[in-house]
From TrEMBL:
The keyword DNA-binding applies. The keyword Transcription regulation applies. Residues 160-258 form the HTH araC/xylS-type domain. It comes from the Bacteria. Keywords: DNA-binding, Transcription, Transcription regulation. InterPro entries: AraC-bd, Homeodomain-like_sf, HTH_AraC, RmlC-like_jellyroll, RmlC_Cupin_sf. SUPFAM superfamilies: Homeodomain-like, RmlC-like cupins. This is AraC family transcriptional regulator. Pfam families: AraC_binding, HTH_18. GO terms for molecular function: DNA-binding transcription factor activity; sequence-specific DNA binding.
């Protein structure tokens, strides 16, 4: 289900609109809103494509999508609880016009959950408007350490095959030489184009892929941390934990505790 089929959010005559849903199903269609959009994942995980970048939202993480940004939802876990909030923002606010993906601190989490009482309310409830205005005004202060957990989709067609190979074989110890043969590019050309298109080196790109996949596996609760580590290609739990901490700024055990 695409919620925007039933409620035209931008046509509502109110500055804020709250929409909470369990097991939300979206159509995989690119669209945009005049309002900014806060997407909070209370449980499960969700992929979101915004302006050509794919972002992963693990449990207890949120994304701020600026107004006018072309975006869509991608695959997600079978059971997911999404909390989506729309807001008019001032043109002068730099923060509200930039994409942000971040771990939700306890205070903001409680404010978001409190807002559920106004879900799908199309009237201008004075209490709701006052509360939601405070939430969105304080949002920049809640985002202290934005996660850079995203993968940029390359536009250069010469990277189509090597990127596909990377996504299908991220668990293996890949060499730049292997991708050079697949892409029919020299090592120097491939490294230059890859960095330009994705914003990162091959090793960093593969690391992000592995961590993203590990978050999916941890979220399912079917595998232990050690099983997850080997499943995504790490030779030891220690190596996986170091890599996870570098990317997520937290330990895999911290994430496991929030999913149980």
């Amino acid at each position: 289900m695409n919620p925007h089929d039933t409620i035209a959010v931008d046509e509502l005559d109110q500055p804020y609109f709250v929409w909470f849903e369990e097991n939300w199903r979206h159509d995989d269609i690119l669209h945009s809103h005049e309002k900014g959009q806060l997407v909070y994942v209370e449980s499960g995980f969700q992929y979101i494509t915004v302006d050509g970048n794919i972002y992963l939202l693990p449990q207890n993480h949120a994304a701020w999508i600026p107004p006018g940004s072309i975006h869509k939802t991608n695959t997600h876990s079978e059971k997911i609880k999404l909390m989506i909030m729309f807001a008019d923002v001032e043109p002068s606010s730099i923060f509200h016009h930039e994409i942000n993906v971040f771990s939700v601190p306890p205070v903001l989490k409680e404010m978001i959950k409190y807002s559920e009482r106004w879900s799908k309310n199309r009237s201008k409830d004075p209490d709701a408007m006052l509360f939601l205005k405070a939430l969105f005004n304080e949002l920049p202060h809640f985002v202290e350490h934005s996660l850079k957990l995203h993968i940029r989709l390359p536009e250069d067609r010469r990277l189509a095959k090597p990127i596909e190979y990377l996504h299908n074989h991220y668990q293996k110890d890949l060499r730049i030489e292997d991708l050079s043969e697949i892409s029919l590019l020299s090592l120097r050309s491939l490294e230059r184009i890859f960095k330009k298109e994705t914003g990162m080196t091959l090793n960093k790109y593969q690391q992000i892929l592995r961590i993203i996949k590990s978050l999916e596996l941890l979220s399912s609760g079917d595998l232990t941390i050690s099983e997850t580590a080997y499943e995504v290609g790490y030779k030891s739990v220690q190596a996986f934990t170091r890599s996870f901490q570098t990317v997520m700024k937290s330990r895999p055990t911290d994430f496991i505790k929030t999913t149980q």
